[in-house]
Amino acid sequence: MMHARHEDDGGAQVIRLDSARQDGAEADGPGGAGSAAGPGPLERRIASGLAFLRRRIAGEYEVDEFGYDPDFNESVLLPTARALYERWFRVELAGVENVPADGGALIVANHSGTLPLDALMLSVALHDHARRCVRLLGADLVYQVPVLAHMARKAGHTLACQADAARLLGKGELVGVFPEGFKGVGKPFAERYKLQRFGRGGFVGTALRAGVPIVPAAIVGAEEIYPKIADLRPLARLLGLPYFPVTPTFPLLGPAGLIPLPSKWMIQFGEPMTLEEYAAEDADDPMTVFNITDHVRENVQQMLYDTLLRRGPAFF
């Protein structure tokens, strides 16, 4: 049976930053292991950086067939994204217990923000609180930009194609997808929190063939970081981009306009949709795929509305 229940958010477990760091704060308090006799935060960061350099020089790290480099990701990429997650966007989570602790699963989330910072925040949330590395599926454009493509591979992400997704799910990985694509991340501010089309449902076919659950996710907060008020389409075509955004700060303020506004974020994970009533062969039935895709989209949209109401004001 396909399960996708909308529950009252009043009972959802919300992980706040202060509680997530409480244990560490207590340890650093009077009489704790991190008291004055121990190394301070700066010393620990320096020691960690030196240890990372030693491992790189000695070649003591592994890279998988997709280019995923766990050591580089956890030592360089995640700490940078975590600073935004904790201090700038002040992300809160709900429903993280709905993310499977192991085995293959497909996270399906809304996409927004003009620049895809929501992908970074989702990665931090799942790594730090679900203890899982999410392997995000990215658009072709991501892997056509030299430095960006290299960093995406290092972080464990890959091209949004069914072959790569099937291989990852077959290995028991947690895979993340944003079915709206550029239509979601590049939509105007006037259409914020309104889901765009979920493509042709390729992600549903992938989940059916792999026999894994779909976990819907709603990300609230990204819509306000770069409010898109116009699109310079001729310039976008000239540069080979899906859009060239105009926001209240960009391009008016130049590079300073790329600093995201400090909106308050919330990420909600819904109950897994197990798809147990379907067989792998149903992935070849367009009507079945369409119906499931539409159901997932409705689920994510309702979660967005609920989470948006719970968050309240965008910047406080």
Descriptive overview:
By secondary structure, the protein is an alpha/beta fold. Helix content is 39%, strand content 11%. The protein has helices spanning 17-20, 22-27, 41-58, 70-88, 117-129, 146-154, 162-170, 182-185, 202-210, 233-239, 286-311, and strands at 14-15, 92-94, 105-109, 134-138, 158-159, 174-177, 214-220, 230-231, 245-246, 266-269. The strands form two sheets. Strands 1-2-10-7-3-6-4-5 form an eight-stranded mixed β-sheet, sandwiched between helices. Strand 4, helix 6 and strand 5 (158-159) form a beta-alpha-beta unit. Helix 4 (70-88) packs across helix 5 (117-129). The model is unreliable at 4-10 and 22-36 (pLDDT under 50).
Features of this protein?
eight-stranded mixed beta sheet; two-stranded antiparallel ribbon; single chain; 11 helices; alpha/beta; 316 residues
Unreliable runs: 4-10, 22-36
**Main structural class:** alpha/beta
Helix content: 25-40%
Oligomer: single chain
Q: State the order of secondary-structure elements, H for helix, E for strand.
A: EHHHHEEHEHEHEHHEEHEEH
DSSP, total strands: 10
What count of helical segments does DSSP give?
Answer: 11
Write down the Rg: 20 Å
Strand content: 5-15%
What is the residue-mean pLDDT, rounded to a whole number?
89
Instruction: Give me the side-by-side strand order of the main sheet.
Output: 1-2-10-7-3-6-4-5
